[in-house]
Amino acid sequence: MSIQESGEMYLETIYILSKKNSFVRSIDVGEYMGYSKPSVSRAVGLLKNGGYITVDKEGYISLTDVGTEVAEKMYERHKLLTDLLIKLGVDEETATEDACRIEHHISDKSFEAIKKHINQF
Asked: What's the mean pLDDT in 75-99?
């Protein structure tokens, strides 16, 4: 199943929150992203049906292997692109916002080339 940009953002958020806390709930995701409960509920349902997350009977969200793969990919892209933009002289807020936009659209091939180039230094 192909995932949309918004789904990638939710998975990345769940990944980030799970690094900070052992349990992640929909309310935590909504607060972090600034989204309403109905929006988060819909996204959680779609991600669950797509096999990207599981939700236990207490409402705790866990990434599946596929969900973790997507989340880690987005997180790596976000961090690297943010750092690159800051090193180029972009302020942190703008760099973070731009990296978020770029991370969802850049091809794997281009990202790997950027990563390879950066790792040379």
From this structure: 95
CATH number at residue 101: 1.10.60.10
Beta bridge partners of 95: none
pTM (2 decimals)?
0.89
Q: Which two tokens stand for residue 55?
A: 């939700």
Residue at a domain's end among 52, 69, 86: 69
d(CA 3, CA 47): 9
Q: Which two tokens stand for residue 15?
A: 């990944």
CA distance 36 to 1: 25
pLDDT band at 15; cut points 50, 70, 90: very high
Taking Cα atoms as reference points, which of 11, 19, 5 lies closest to residue 54?
A: 11
Instruction: Fill in the amino acid letter for 15.
Output: Y
